[in-house]
Amino acid sequence: MTAPTIPTSAAELEAMLSDTSTLTAIAKTPASLGEFIRKYASAQMAKNGEVIEAQIREQSQIVVAEMLKQNGTTLSNRSKLDLGAGKSVTGAGAAYNPEAIGAALDSEFASVSDFLRSVVPDHKKSPKDRARWEKIRNDYSTVDPATGGFLVPEQLRSEILQNTLEESLVRPRAMVISMDGPSVPFPCVDETTHSGSVYGGITGTWVEEAEALPESEAKFGRIVLRANKLVSYCEVPTELPTDAPQAFGSFVDNAMPRAITFFEDSAFLTANGVGKPLGVLHSGNSALIAVAKESGQAADTIVWENVIAMFSRMLPSSLNRAVWIASIDSFPELATMALSVGTGGSAVWLNNGVEGPPATILGRPCYFTEKVNKVGDQGDLSFVDFGHYLVGDRQQMRVESSQHYKFGNDMIVYRVIERVDGRPWMKSAITPANGSTKTLSPYVTLAERA
To answer: How far apart are CA 261 and CA 156, in angstroms?
Structure first.
């Protein structure tokens, strides 16, 4: 039997593996199966190399961070840029940090649910629980000295946040800054143009030998990250932590990270910056470019020309990192986009109804979400490089519990308090070096189509 033709799509692969004779030939020996897999992978890499590489790069950050944490080190230890007291770059995501305040408690608890059961007042009765209660008690706050609560061990804090990285849009792609205090100033380049200079004033001039050298100086600004308080609240039946510890642990390990992810992402994307992060798509982001609708474009639509115009406004150095963020109700518009050619045209994104929709637009990953504006409003489709977004992480999490607030309902109330901030790193869109009037930015969105 001749060697099977290597499939080029998921549909072709499914059809090939549905053929019993072909499947038998492919899997005849481990060597033949391995050879087929290698050839198929090579074909896919040749066809979609950049997309696959980007997806692998994004997911590997999460996997590597978890692996390093389990082996007693962190991603930040390997690649941390020390910027002085109170501010260090820990890269993408939220890896375990052995220098965080909660690291001293890591050996005290087996799981998140074990920790939450321990902070319920009834569990002070045994000597062991009383000792653990006193050890995790934290009666100070850098903002309000009267605020109490229970410091979450760093191992558990990082597990909660690590779980969020798989579903989070912003945090795993942003620049995360560890914060040792309630506010941290972070440097940024203050620039508005690349026409004649870069990085806020650095010029390049060709000079003859012995000619006087020109002077240039970069202009820097700063962005202040403040530890805003995010409070996650939930009510749990009194019996659940002790009568059904496994169910309680499952709830905590799944529901709580997803809740934190949801509220973090919503703020990092659209919040107004008052007592909370400044969202990358909020109008208060002075570097945000809102691409206008096409002439005569109908309300609440997305056309292929919008996508092309948005791509052309992305900062070129960000093109290999930028991702598309789309409202889920924009899918019908994206799925029916067409490119007009003379009196005809053809679909440009969804070519058939057999395979699932492509995970990319113009070669860059596309993520659908409910956390941005509805279709037709500004921000329903955006093209963003989150590497130019700063997340300030206080790396400190507290839990508060009460059996009295919902005493009449026989419920335990938990509050999980996290302190974070988020700010766009660039302060202004950039006039390109060629002098074009169309500015560039790592934050591009589609303006309202009313």
So the answer is: 16
Q: Do residues 89 and 81 touch, judged by C-beta distance below 8 A?
A: yes
pLDDT at 330 over 90: yes
Task: Let me know: does 386 contact 170? Beta carbons within 8 Å.
Answer: yes
The reported pLDDT for the residue numbered 140 is 35
367 forms bridges with which residues in the sheet? 325
Longest CA span, the chain: 87
Tell me, what amino acid is at 178?
S
CA-CA distance, 94 to 309, in Å (whole number)?
A: 34
Which H or E element spans position 267?
helix 245-270
Q: Which residues have C-beta within 8 Å of that of residue 123, sequence separation ≥ 6?
A: 117, 129, 133
Q: Which residue has the tokens 């058939």?
A: 352
Instruction: At 320, give phi and psi (nearest 5°).
Output: -85, 0
Burial of residue 268, with CB atoms counted within 10 A of its CB: 0-12 exposed, 13-18 middle, 19 or more buried: buried
Residue 404 corresponds to which tokens in the numbers above? Answer: 């009295």
Banded pLDDT at 215 (limits 50, 70, 90): low
Starting at the edge strand found earlier in the chain, the sheet holding 289-291 runs 289-291, 443-446, 381-384, 323-327, 364-369, 360-361
As given in the structure block, the two tokens for residue 69 are 């944490």
Q: State the pairing for strand pair 175-179/87-89.
A: antiparallel
- Identify the three-state secondary structure at position 165: helix
DSSP string, 351-383: --SSSPPPSEETTEEEEEESSSPPTTSTTSEEE
Read off the tokens for 95: 């890896």
- Measured CA to CA, the distance from residue 252 to residue 152 in angstroms comes to 14
Q: Give the SS3 label for residue 306.
A: helix
pLDDT of 342 > 80? The answer is: no
Cα gap 139→116, rounded to integer Å: 17
pLDDT classification of 128: cutoffs 50, 70, 90: low
C-alpha 384/C-alpha 315 separation (Å) is: 10
Distance CA 443, CA 356 (A): 28
Please state the pTM of the whole predicted model.
Answer: 0.68
* Secondary structure in 3-state letters for 315-355: CHHHCCCCEEEEEHHHHHHHHCCEEEECCEEEECCCCCCCC
User: What are all long-range contacts of 336-340, with beta carbons under 8 Å and residues at least 24 apart?
Assistant: 337/302, 337/303, 337/304, 337/307, 338/304, 339/304
- Cβ-contact 447, 292 below 8 angstroms: yes
62, amino acid identity: I
Give mean pLDDT, residues 75-92.
41
